Structures are given as C-alpha cells and as structure tokens.
Amino acid sequence: MSFVTVDNIFQSYGNRPIIERVNTTIDEGEFISIVGASGCGKSTFLRLLLAQETPTRGEIRIDGKPPAKEPGLDRGVVFQRYSVFPHMTVRENVVAGECFRRPWGRFFGTERKAALGRADETLARIGLDHVADQYPATLSGGMQQRLAIGQALAAKPRVLLLDEPFGALDPGTRLSMHDFLTELRAETGMTVFMVTHDLEEGFKLGDRVLVFDKPRWDPTDPNAYGATITYDFDARDGGIPFQKIKEETNVLQPA
Amino acid sequence: MRLINQKPGVAFAAFLTALPFALALIAYAIGSDIRLSANPSDKLLPAPSTILSTAERLLTEPDKRSEQILFWKDTWASLVRLLLGVGISAFLGTVVGLLIGLLPHVRSTLAGFVAVLSMIPPLALLPILFIVFGLGELSKVVLIIIGILPFLIRDLSSRVLEIPREMIVKAETLGATSWVIAIRVALPQLMPRLIQAVRLSLGPAWLFLIAAEAIAADQGLGYRIFLVRRYLAMDVILTYVIWITALAFVMDWGLRVLSRKAFPWTESTL
Ligand SMILES: Nc1ncnc2c1ncn2[C@@H]1O[C@H](COP(=O)(O)OP(=O)(O)OP(=O)(O)O)[C@@H](O)[C@H]1O
Ligand SMILES: [Mg+2]
C-alpha cells in the first residue's frame, strides 16, 4: 500500500516550467535519495512534498489524505541552512520540537521539566550534550545539522525531508552523520526523502534513488521544458551503485 | 602596506579618539579668548570658565520664585516626554512591524499606507497637533510618536521579512500556529533589531521634542534654551546643549550595552 502518492505533478514559476509530469509512489518507511543536476528542481520537489508550495498541476497525497495546504506536524524538514533557531540554546531548540504545537509555544512546570529531561536524552544520543547550553552560532556546521535533525525528530514526523543536509560537512563528519541517520531510521521507521549531490551517499543510505533530469531538451530554449524523474534505481542491495533500473519510463531517447 | 590595513595601536587609538574633542575645545577657547579680549562684555562665546560656573549655578541653585532647581525640573520633564514618546513608538512599532512582516493581508493593507505616512514631515503637523491635542504634554509625546513611528514600523517590518523563510517553515513543521511563530520565532529575533532601530530614532526623537518644547511649553530642556535665547545667555544655552548631548550619548550607549548583554546569541556587532 503506497504511503506517499505523487500524482502527475507540474510546477512552474511564471511561465517557466521547473518540474513536469512527476509520478511516483513511495511505501511507508522507505528512504528515498534524490539526485540531479544543480537547478533542476530537487528543492522545488521537496517544497511541494512539504506543502510549502502548491503545484500548478497534480497533487501529492500522504497516507491517502487530501493534499496538505501548508506545512504541518506530519512532515519534518532539515534545510541546508537556517534549520535551527539562533535565539534558543541547543537544549531549547530540541524542546521546541515538542512545545511549538502548544498554545503559547512553551511548556510550563512539570511538563517543562520532563521535556528538558527528554531533550537531554536526545542530546546525549546525537552527541551534543556537552554544548546543551550554548547557542547554535557557536556550533560547527555538522553539529548544527545534527541539532536540526534532532529537533525535527523530536516532533515525531511521519515523513522527514532533508535538503542536502550534509552538503557542507567534511567527509569524516559526513560518515558519522550517515551512521546517526541510519540508526534513527531503524528506530523510528519513518519515511525519508533526502536530496544530495553525492551519488555514493545517495546509494548508501537510500532504498531508492530518484534521478531528476530533463527528458526533453529544446536546444534553442533550454528553459522550455521542466525536469522529471528519469531514473528510479533500487538501491537496496548493499548500496552499491549501478543497480537494476526499476522504471524506464522517462529515459532520454536520442532523436 | 595598504592604508586599509594600517591599524593604530591601543594607546594611539585612544589618543586619536580624544584628538578631535581636544581640538574643538582648544578652538573654542581661542575663539572665545579673542572675542573677549576685544570686548569683555561679549556674550557670543563665553569663556569655558564662565560656562563651568554657570553650569554649577544651574545645577545647584534653586530658582528664587519657584524654589526648585529648574535644571533638574527641565530635565525630568523632557525625559518623561521623550521616554513616553519613544517607548510607545517602540511598542507600537514592534506590534505593527510583526503584523506587517508576518501576515500578508496586513502587509497588503498597511505597507503602502505606512510608506506614504513616513513621507509626511512631522514638524509640518505640529500646528495641527497643538490644535487637536492642546498645548499640554500629549501633543509633545504625539509629535515624537508621529515623527519616529513610521520609521520604526518600516524598519521592523522589513527585519521580520528578513527572517529566512526556512526558519518560519521549520516552525510550521513543528506545529506552531501563526501566534506561536510570532512570539517564539519572530519576536525574539526582532528584539535586538528593535534596540538598534530605537538607537537610530533617538536623534529624531530629541529633535521633535526640542522643537515642540521650543514652541509651546512651560518647562523642559528645549523650552529653557529658547527662553534664555532672548537674553543671549549663551552660557546657559551651551550648558543645556552639552547636557542634552550627554543624555543622548548615555542612552545610546546604554542601549548598545543592553543589546549585547541581553542577546548573547547575536554574534554580529549591533
Ligand atoms: N520561488 C521561485 N521563483 C522563481 N524561480 C524559482 C523559485 N524557486 C526556484 N526557482 C528556480 O527553479 C529552478 C530549480 O530550483 P531548485 O532550487 O529546485 O533547484 P535544485 O535542484 O534544488 O538545485 P540545487 O542542486 O542547486 O539546490 C532554479 O532554476 C530556480 O532559479
Ligand atoms: Mg536545492
């Protein structure tokens, strides 16, 4: 039973199509890596999944519900930047994952104590307990991304969207973030979409790798057509690249 | 080495800071000396010693009729007006700035209106204020508000709009309502900006205060300056000007320290 259904999505800005005819279905708990050339509309696709934007045509349903009109609790997100709140300490940032849904955006009294306790557990898990009282500006890029993921997970979303979450990290930190993410996924079983420019990373972490590209190309007007999913690789078998192609619907054919 | 890379040492920097002050003082002393030696009863540039003794008299001796020290009475009256005007403006500016910055409907309604309002020269409205609000405290406070509120609203609303969209979307995914986003995400990030904006508007606020006091008041720093102008009492005027400058400087400095102390999460120098 498919969990996320992407049904014939088009998105254009002005009269410039960015993505077109995107169709796919995703099962609950799948890890989807999204790769593609810069500017082909991967972030746009994530914004559509997030319901930050509405597509010009088509619809995205999650768990069979009507298409969402705005971002909400069921979808968590980690952007490449600006994902944590700079005016809150690391610990408060994690607590924010739970308390922002409250009328005042805070916990009071015993509830607050309990939430702080849980936040400290989360911080210990993500290896940030030693900086719990610092502000994000004093953390390194990798620590901030870890915090952003911890915060998003504290809200317990069913779908997690990651836009180049490890783009700015050094290879070592990247590897430890991979382990971290793999562990979390095994624990929570949530559905993950991750945009990345690193193919190896995409195949290592993903169950499937979606490739976005332009299936049609107008040499006189490169912006005439949008991108779509041209390949849908099964990446499950140990994450080695060059897997069998699952779908071959939109592959660019030489004229 | 390039000029842009040449930096003064600590002691030399302090010397350079003090230099223009010292030069201005010396220039004044020389000018005053030249005029006084030509005409000992000259009133235009009183000797620094005269200013000092006048200042001492103003600060300590009570007025014969009212038995109050007018200097402190004026200071108190002016400060109350200024702080009321700036405080009310800061509050309204924050609320309206948040509304404009966060809510597209309010933005469509008010942004253009505020932009036009901010072009009205406030002093041109002063006669209207005196007619509508009378000659009392209210018209002076209202002048300050009219003078600085449009700037504060425009500045603060654009600061709210500068908050990265990602951060707002992130809060939405954590289940925050518009209200929670306003008080937990936008407002805290606006506070250092507010202090910055208030610092910038203190200058205009003093200007409007003194203008209003000069025209219609019975006490206040601006009132006193324009009163003693009739007697060409430059020593009194200069004492008051120095005092106003000192007050404005201390306020600015206090706000700067406050913003550094109160918002440790801002790395930028405000
Ligand atoms: N709000 C917008 N208005 C107009 N054009 C936009 C908007 N957002 C994105 N675009 C355009 O859409 C195209 C796709 O942008 P998008 O950010 O989705 O690319 P991307 O695949 O994520 O690229 P990258 O790998 O560099 O992050 C870009 O050419 C961009 O200029
Ligand atoms: Mg992108």
TrEMBL record, chain A:
Please verify whether the record's keywords include Nucleotide-binding: yes
Query: Is Cell membrane given among the entry's keywords?
Result: yes
The ABC transporter domain covers: 4-239
Q: Which Pfam families match?
A: ABC_tran
User: What UniProt keywords apply to this chain's record, in alphabetical order?
Assistant: ATP-binding, Cell membrane, Membrane, Nucleotide-binding, Translocase, Transport
**GO MF entry, a single one:** ATP hydrolysis activity
Leader sequence range is none
Q: Which residues cross the membrane?
A: none
State the source organism's domain of life: Bacteria
What family classification does the UniProt entry report for this protein?
Answer: Belongs to the ABC transporter superfamily.
Q: What is this protein called?
A: Spermidine/putrescine ABC transporter ATPase subunit
Source organism: Actibacterium atlanticum
From TrEMBL, chain B:
- The name under which this protein is listed is Binding-protein-dependent transport systems inner membrane component
> Biological process (GO) annotations?
cellular response to sulfur starvation; transmembrane transport
A single GO CC term for this protein reads: plasma membrane
Q: What is its main location?
A: membrane
UniProt keyword Transmembrane, yes or no: yes
UniProt keywords (A-Z) are: Cell membrane, Membrane, Transmembrane, Transmembrane helix, Transport
Q: Describe its membrane topology.
A: Multi-pass membrane protein
**Where does the chain cross the membrane?**
82-103, 110-135, 141-157, 197-217, 237-255
Q: Which Gene3D superfamilies does the UniProt record give?
A: MetI-like
The text of the family note is: Belongs to the binding-protein-dependent transport system permease family.
> Which organism is this entry from?
Actibacterium atlanticum
Q: Where in the cell is it found?
A: Cell membrane
Keyword Cell membrane applies: yes
Residue stretches making up the ABC transmembrane type-1 domain: 79-259
Looking up SUPFAM superfamilies in the UniProt record yields:
MetI-like
